[in-house]
Amino acid sequence: MPCKICERKAEKELCGLHEEARSTLFRKYEVWRKSLNLSWTEYLQEIRKNAYAGLWVKEVASYLLASNRMSEQDVPRSSGVAMDKV
Amino acid sequence: MRTERTLILCEKPNTAQRVAKALDGYGKPREKRLDRVPFYEAERDGKELLVVPALGHLYTIAPKETDRNIYPVLDFDWIPRHAAERKAAETRAWIEAISKLSHEATEFILATDYDVEGETLGYTILKYACGSKEKDARRMKFSTLTTDELRTSFTHLADHIDFTTVEAGLCRHFLDALYGINLSRALTIAAKSWSGRFTVLSTGRVQGPALRFLVDREKKINSFVPTPFWSISAEVEINGSIFEVEYEREVIERRGEAQAIVEACRAKKGKITETEVKEIQQSPPLPFDLGALQTEAYSLFKFTPKMTGDIAERLYLEALISYPRTASQRLPPSINYVAIIESLSRSSEYNRLCAELLGMKQLVPREGARQDPAHPAIYPTGSLPERGLSGSERRLWDLVVRRFMAVFGEPCLKRTMKVCIAVDGHRFYLWGRRVLKEGWTVFYKSFLKAEEVLLPRLEEGQEVAIKRIELEDRFTKPPPRYNPSSLLKKMEEEGIGTKATRASIIDTLYNRGYVTEERAVVSELGFDVIDVLDKHCPEVISVGFTRELEKSMEKIQNGKERMETVINKAVTHLGPVLEKLKEHQEAVGQELSVAIRKAHMQRRMVGVCPICGVGKLMIMYSRQTGKQFIGCTGFFKGLCKASFPLPQTGNVEAARRSCRDCGWPMMRVHVKSRRAWTFCINQGCPSKGGRK
Fold this sequence. Notes:
The complex is a heterodimer. By secondary structure, chain A is an all-alpha fold.
């Protein structure tokens, strides 16, 4: 199956490189939430325009926002904040 | 009776000219030519000398199996370069000339560069072109091409060439060919068998691990998620002057907390609670080895390591600096410090500095731990340029001269002052720096940044006003990209490649399209090559094994290991890897072909179409005329008909920047033997002033 973002070979929906970026993105949400009190969507929007965020991270953020995949399973469980509306 | 003639074999034509001039009793050797190949007849102490140049390596190692579609190849031979490389046709004349001249000689002296490559190329020429004279030849050893040193080395000839160094050199060439040819063939054949198109893909014993460093770093950068934090920026006023101060914590994790600090200190008065004065000594820098020279030249002048290596080589051939391919950080007294400095003082630029050095009681250089058995650290010979140097040559020579002087300097003495200011329970620090004694920095001033911060007289208990205090939104930064200089340093630290090969390996990564831009950005192709190798044969991009081989070659040079053992080890290591690649040829080919196609498409992309703003501009070819032009991808959907003409000669590529005047994409054109130029695709661009 090709990666939904870059069309590289992928086992699930994303290739290894974008999968790694996604897991970092999820892991770091907790830090952003505590520092800036952002919702998941706001976080993704911020990441997308941040100058220091990596290219693959931005691509994953755009993909998640564009594919409207903000369902419960996509938001990091540890966040403990109210979910955005889908 | 046959005249006694000594053939002196040099590495390059200008070395031969210098050697001949230095050795000829009257300093006027006769230049002759044999089929375009220059050589020199000289006379010294009644002996006739034939000084003959090579053209670098005249022989190369090549696989016995010449069909490029076959691998693995494990049998290699040394053959003339012209028989293996199309671009080396002129070496045929040189081999023939050396061969002819060797028949006239009764004695042989090798006077190539005194290092592994010099010894190896000399050995192969003596063996194959001169009729197995490698065992009879004696050796001139020198680190500079000055007349004095060349004469001394001619008087004190070594009885034979250095055979362990030769063995190490032959082994390195064999291993490079074994890995490079087999792995590159495996990748190229796999890609070709899948796509039917031929694209040269390469990897090698050192190239693979070097690319891996870049890929690993690129992955970290591309997957980087910054962490937000805040810092405080503040200034205080003391006796009417404004000074920047540092808040006690560099990182504040919560915005609210940082805001509270700002509010608490705004427009307040603070009190100096403590002043701490320290004196620090800064030792002179170490003499340059090649790696340090390349790093410094990159940081000061943005010269790539390869460029620095090439310029240094030219300066060596002009006898202006010592042999640059050295790992030594030592300057032995035998180079005669005083003579060099006295000689440099003839230049008005260095006259005053030289007088200062010559006025010192004793000249003792600061030295590092690293030694090179063949050469000292890089130093100026004292000779002044005989011709006008180019800008970059002049800068590099000046750097070597000033560094040489600086290593003899006294330590620089600085006083730092740290002042603690308490404001409402918060602490700020004010830093002052003052140079007490310039020491070695006098000689190296033009390459140092002035960093003095002079503070007024301050006392504990003194009040100071916070003039400005602000909150700064900050983010953690990704690790920096490697540049050619930091990659070279990394390779050096990891012990892969040699001082002579690292710079050209970095260049190859760029030439193959694995890496682009000055701050090495790995291309899709670079990622995919490492991906494929990692999946099917991670052993060949392992730094560990490459490092082990480098150490083995060092051992060969020191006579502690045999070439055969190392070669057997490498063949045993590589054999299964190649089998595996062959087994998975189809999968490897498919993955690489996709990457090549993507890279090819990427090269054709110019940018967003400025006409429709939706489609992308691309280099296209007309089906009717075959001519190249720029067209919008929107054309295929019937959305945009934008098209722009392109020159039909040379290599045209996107310049990856926008026009300053109109913001449209720029293109770059490379035409052979002309300087590349860029142009804006907009025919109505104001920069063209009405020209189309």
